[in-house]
Structure formats: structure tokens, C-alpha cells
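Please predict the structure of the following assembly.
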Amino acid sequence: MKTIPVNVNVLNRNSEVAARVNERLTAAGIKMINLLGTPGSGKTTLLEAVLGCLEVDRNSVAVIEGDLYTAQDAERMEALGVRTIQLNTQGACHLEADMIERALDELDLEGVRTVVVDNVGNLVCTSEFELGEHLRVGVSSVTEGNDKPFKYPLMFQTANMVLLNKMDLLEFTNFDTDRFVADVHSINESAQIVFCSAWKRTGLESVVSLFK
Amino acid sequence: MHESVVCQEIVDIVLRAAEANGLTRVDEIVVSAGPYSCLNEAELNFFLLMARVGTCMEDAYITVERDESLVGASQMFVKCIRGE
């Protein structure tokens, strides 16, 4: 029996496409944000809140919506007048870089400075697939409970910014914000943690600044 | 949850490595996975039952070794293959 060393990244093909996407967007002066989080954490509501701000030029933003079956999220973006493309994974739990590459081919990127990928709601697989993004923003919410950073560490480890959403509901829960900050920083000490309420449109300044 | 995709990628990587190194039969595939990698050995081997049909790895199995030093989004590597 022979042992042959291989040492090849299993997701190499995805990573190669992701690198190509990143290079293409960087050359065009476009920043891509990969928005991750559980179903119901408020990713799309956050986008509505931020893109609804007067300070954000909606013509400079394009959104790639990821969902298993429906076009509901794309319809919400289109209602705001934002360029949108809906990707339906037909049951698959995450987006892959080649889907993003094809979506970029279809989108009119004239005047666009920021592309947001509103990923499939999932804390597990979405984190493992690089899409070519410049920035990862993870959305968590107080109603999900304090155990999520340790239960799903990869999203928290790979996010540049972690939003703690639904702060308006904090008083109705037993959520411990100090513990959340300590837990996230124990996994990823450089993560910027932001407390906000997308629904009440509070605490969104640092997210809005990503679009300027 | 994404073991089918991962398994297909592993099979493609192994087929290329086997051919490049003149292996006609692969018996074992060793995968290194980081501590936060969401990879389940039993599920991978379940998908391998289908993905290996008609290849040089008809009787192969996948062993997942945890490697604490692997960090970042992509924490899975085909470390080595064993065969003849």
C-alpha cells in the first residue's frame, strides 16, 4: 500500500471562483458584502432599513438575494427601487461562488459601488463557502438566545462585523449582551460588534457607513 | 448538510491525484478538517457510496482527522490517499 500526500483544499474550486469574483469586483471599484445569519435574524429587514436611509444612494447598490424557493426577498428590495437578482437554490442550504459569478454577469453594475449578498438563512454551511466578498457581516438577534456563538462558531469566527439585532426586544428576553460580546470576542477578537434594531431603525450608523 | 457537494469535490481531487501518481486502486482517503469545520464523517461516507461507483475507489472510505491548526472559512483538506 502506498501513501500519496495530496494536501488540496476540498473547496479549492469554489475558492478559485471566489478569488476570480473578488478580483473582478475590486478592479471595478465595487465592494461586496456577504450577509450571513439564521432564518429570521433580520438580514433582509436590515437591508431594507439601511437602503431606506437618505444617506445611502440606492442607485449605487445591487443586491443578490439567496433563498431556497421564493422571490419574496427580491420583491422587498425591488419595492425600494434597488437593483436585485434572486437566486433560488432549490433546497440547497448555501450559495456558492459560481452562482455569484453568474449573477454578476446578469446584473447591470453601471454605477454600482456595493454589492450585497443576502445569503440563505443558515449558520452552518453558508460560512464555509467564500463567495469573493470583501466583508462578512453576521446577523444574530437577541431572540435567538445566548448560545449561538459557541454553537455556530464558524460564522462568528469569519465575520468582520457581527450585528446583534432586535435590541428593541431585549427587555422581553433573558439575553445577556455582555456575555454575547465576551463569547464572540473569545472566538474572534477583531470582530466589530454592533447592537441594533433593524425594525426600529436604531444603531445602524456603522452599517450605513459601509455603503458610503 | 453540504456533504454531497464536499464528497463530489473530494472524489474529483482524489481521481486527479490517483491518476497523477499512477494509483489504480484507492483504499483510503484522509481528510483534515479544522475544529469549526461542519463535516460529518458518516455522512461523507454515505455520499461516497454513490460517488465512487465506477471509479478506482470502489472500496474506499474517507477518514476525517481533526486538525486544530486549520482556521478560516475553508477548513477542509484532502491530506493524503492510500492505495496501490
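The interface with chain A takes residues 1-2, 5-6, 9-10, 12-14, 17-18, 21, 23, 27, 31, 36-38, 71-84 of chain B (CB under 8 Å). The two ends of chain B are 32 Å apart (CA to CA).
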